[in-house]
Write a structure and sequence with these properties.
This protein has 387 residues and is α+β, with helices and mostly antiparallel strands. It folds into 2 domains: 225 residues; 160 residues, no CATH class. It is built from 10 helices and 12 strands. The strands form 2 sheets. Strands 7-8-10-9-5-6-4-3-2-12 form a 10-stranded antiparallel beta sheet. Strands 1-11 form a two-stranded parallel sheet. A hairpin with a 4-residue loop joins strand 2 and strand 3.
C-alpha cells in the first residue's frame, strides 16, 4: 500500500449556535457565553481547578475524541491574557491536568491495544496571541486545551491520499524554516536538555508507515511506555521539551527582529542559549536571511508568528512505542496533520448519530475513571446525566 497523508471525512451534528450580529465567529468563540454552551451542551466533567473535559462537537474522529480546556473565561475576561500553553499554568492546576492526561491516555491504549488497528494521539497546541483575533487560521478558543483522539487505521487505509502540497502538511521536513536552515543546530540544542525518560528517536521508527508522518520533526521515545506517564519525572521532561522549544523559537525571532539582540530575559536555559545559539554562525546566518526578507517582503513578514507557536503531542508508533514530538506551528496546521491525517469535517447529523452511542459510552467511562480518581465531578447535559 502506498504511504502518504490521508484525507478522511468526519461527520458532525450541526451546532445551533447564533453568533451576535457584528461579531465574527472566532471573536464569539472566545466569549464566556460560548464556553457556557461548550459546558452545558458538551461538557462531561469539571473540577475546582477550572479544567473542563468535553466532547468535541466538531470532532476529528467519531471513534474517540475529547478535549480538556483550562476554562478561564469567567476569571480572565481578556482573551489575550489567558494561559495558552503549559508553561503558563499554575503548578497545582498542571498537577491535576497531568493526572487527567495519564488516565485518559491509559484508557485509549487499553481500548485500542493494537497499533496496527488504531492511531492513538494526545497533545496540545500553542494559542498565543501572535495574530489579530480576526485573522484567518487563528484558534477559535484562546485558552489552553488539548486533544485526545483515536483514528481507525482501516478507515485511514481506505481513505484517498491527501494533496501533498496542502500547506498544512508542510510544517516539518524541508518546508520548515527550522528544519531547512538550522536542522543540526536545532537537534544539538535539544540534545543538551536534561532528559532521562525521553530518548531521541532518530532512526525512522517514530514515523507512521501508513502516512509517512511526522516528517522532519524532533521526536523522543518514552522509555517505559505508558507506565512512565504515571511518573512525575515524565511530565517534567515533557515540559522541558516545551521550554527548550520556546527558548529556541524566542531566541531566533528575537535575532530576526533585532540584529545582535541580547539574550531574552525570560529564557529557561540561558547558558545553553548563549553557548549553542548566540555563538552559532548557522543560527545567526538564518536569522539574517529571514530579517532581510522581512524588510523587502511585507506579506512574508506579516505571516510570521513572532511569539512561540507550536504543537506538542504524544502518539503511538507502528511498533507500539509512545513517542513525543513538537512542531514549529508556523502555518497553523491541525494537530492531526502532524501525523499525516487531514480531516474534512462535514455537517451530517444522521451519519454522526450512527457513531454517537459507542463514542459516548467510551467518553462516559473515561469520566467515571476521572471521578473515581477525585479529578472532578460529572456534568449533566441534555444528552447524558451527571453520573
Amino acid at each position: 500500500m502506498q504511504s502518504g497523508p490521508r484525507e478522511i471525512i468526519n461527520p458532525f451534528r450541526p451546532i445551533p449556535l447564533d453568533v451576535p450580529e457584528g461579531m465574527k465567529p472566532n471573536e464569539f468563540f472566545n466569549s464566556t457565553e460560548n464556553l457556557n454552551d461548550l459546558t452545558y451542551n458538551n461538557g462531561l466533567l469539571r473540577n475546582p481547578e477550572d479544567l473542563l473535559l468535553y466532547r468535541k462537537a466538531l470532532g476529528h474522529s467519531n471513534e474517540f475524541d475529547c478535549s480538556i480546556i483550562y476554562n478561564t473565561s469567567k476569571t480572565i475576561l481578556n482573551p489575550l491574557g489567558r494561559p495558552v500553553r503549559r508553561t503558563q499554568v499554575p503548578d497545582n492546576v498542571k498537577h491535576v491536568w497531568n493526572r487527567m492526561n495519564q488516565i485518559i491516555i491509559e484508557y485509549m491504549l487499553e481500548q485500542y491495544p493494537d497499533p496496527a488497528e488504531a492511531l492513538v494521539l494526545a497533545g496540545e497546541a500553542s494559542l498565543d496571541a501572535t495574530w489579530p483575533l480576526t485573522s484567518p487560521g487563528v484558534p477559535s478558543i484562546r485558552m489552553l486545551h488539548n486533544h485526545f483522539i483515536v483514528f481507525d487505521k482501516q478507515q485511514l487505509r481506505a481513505a484517498p491520499l491527501a494533496d501533498s502540497n496542502n500547506p498544512n502538511l508542510t510544517d516539518g521536513g524541508q518546508h520548515s524554516l527550522f528544519q531547512a536552515h538550522m536542522r543540526e543546530v536545532y537537534r544539538a540544542f535539544f540534545d543538551r536538555l536534561d532528559l532521562q525518560i525521553l530518548r531521541p528517536c532518530n532512526d525512522g521508527t517514530c514515523r507512521i508507515e501508513l502516512t509517512g508522518y511526522p516528517q522532519g520533526l524532533p521526536a523522543w521515545e518514552i522509555t517505559g511506555g505508558a507506565e512512565s506517564l504515571k511518573e512525575v519525572r515524565f511530565w517534567k521532561e515533557y515540559d522541558i521539551i516545551l521550554q527548550g522549544f520556546i527558548d529556541f523559537y524566542r531566541t531566533f525571532f528575537t535575532q530576526v527582529s533585532t540584529r545582535n539582540a541580547p539574550l531574552p530575559r525570560e529564557s529557561y536555559f540561558p547558558e545553553l542559549v548563549e553557548e549553542k545559539l548566540l555563538f552559532n554562525n548557522d543560527f545567526l546566518k538564518a536569522a539574517k536571511m529571514v530579517r532581510e526578507r522581512c524588510i523587502v517582503d511585507p506579506a512574508y513578514a506579516n505571516g510570521l508568528r513572532w511569539q512561540p507557536a507550536f504543537k506538542q503531542l504524544i502518539y503511538r508508533n507502528d511498533h507500539g512505542k509512545l513517542i513525543v514530538t513538537i512542531s514549529q506551528n508556523s502555518i497553523g496546521n491541525a494537530i492531526t496533520e502532524l501525523l499525516g491525517v487531514v480531516v474534512k469535517r462535514t455537517p451530517d447529523a444522521a451519519a454522526y448519530e450512527q457513531s454517537e452511542p459507542a463514542l459516548l459510552n467510551k467518553l462516559l467511562e473515561v469520566r467515571r475513571r476521572l471521578v473515581e480518581a477525585d479529578l472532578g465531578e460529572g456534568i449533566a447535559t441534555a444528552h447524558w446525566g451527571a453520573e
